[in-house]
Amino acid sequence: SFTCPSCALTLQAKLPEGITSVQCSGCKSVFAVQIQPTVAGPSGPAGQHKKGARKRSKIDKEGNTAPRVLNAYNVFMKEELAKVKREHPELIHKDAFKMAADRWQASPMNPQNGGDQVPKRGAGDDVAAMDE
């Protein structure tokens, strides 16, 4: 918690470490607040996760993240969007994506159409290699 220097209102907010600008909810004045780094063990606030919080990707010793596994829709859209853009280079991305999404509805890869699961591929796989 911190106090507004103009009206002395005590404010509470979760702020990042370092200097941050804050606007007082009482008098609307803007002032700088410096948040010091906190040291917490695994059971402290840094070790807790909110329900529904996104999981961070795993990072190896070199700092590289593992590519996420693509589902059937992701694989189809990656391939189909590249195909649509080759067929219709004049289309803006939004329209090309819409056309590829429309094709997904009738695709045999779509599980709603009885499609099988696609072999698991990483996000870094090359689209050109998939066309062969």
TrEMBL record:
<dbReference type="InterPro" id="IPR056775">
    <property type="entry name" value="YABBY_C"/>
</dbReference>
<feature type="region of interest" description="Disordered">
    <location>
        <begin position="104"/>
        <end position="132"/>
    </location>
</feature>
<feature type="region of interest" description="Disordered">
    <location>
        <begin position="38"/>
        <end position="65"/>
    </location>
</feature>
<feature type="compositionally biased region" description="Basic residues">
    <location>
        <begin position="48"/>
        <end position="58"/>
    </location>
</feature>
<dbReference type="Pfam" id="PF04690">
    <property type="entry name" value="YABBY"/>
</dbReference>
<protein>
    <recommendedName>
        <fullName>YABBY protein C-terminal domain-containing protein</fullName>
    </recommendedName>
</protein>
<dbReference type="InterPro" id="IPR036910">
    <property type="entry name" value="HMG_box_dom_sf"/>
</dbReference>
<feature type="domain" description="YABBY protein C-terminal">
    <location>
        <begin position="55"/>
        <end position="110"/>
    </location>
</feature>
